[in-house]
Amino acid sequence: MAIISPGPNFILVTNTALSDSRQAGLFAALGVATGSALFALAGLAGLLVLVNSLPHFGTLLRFAGGGYLAWLGFDMLRHRHHQLGKRIAETPGTGCPPLLSYRTGLLTNLSNPKAWAFYLSLFSLVMTPNFPLWGKVFLNAAMFLISLAWYATVVVLISSRTIQPAFLGWRPVIQGVLGVLLMLLGGKILLM
Question: Given pLDDT bands bounded at 50, 70 and 90, which one contains residue 87?
Fold first, then answer.
């Protein structure tokens, strides 16, 4: 449920699929899922507890994560402004390199302090000293696959030929709302 609840990852993947291409959206989804796998791996290895115990780590993460999310929102608004200045094409662009989409998805997930808190609490509850290795491997793979399946489904739905035309006319409005939401999320994290 935590993975499918709307947040920065959902906003990013939706915006990428809507404003660029299905391929770019899928690479962003893969980046988000990789972030989930890294969180799970760090949780399994006990690194989340270790990193969280570092002095001022939470404050640093809050500023870095909140700043990054606010910047992503600002960037969405900036691109929306450029689209409003030009005539909006009937199809989304295809110019975003896959590696850039992947990196943006990965950084968005890793910079989200709420994701850190979720994985820390999940693995603190689940990981007991006698938890079997096969269970740890299964849990790590499951976190990656659940995340990838959800965000890939979002991308496929948003970029489908039957659904996307309904969104294209509203693309600048949707991107504006998504950009503002990311800026508000980033600001909320900064002010926590």
Answer: very low
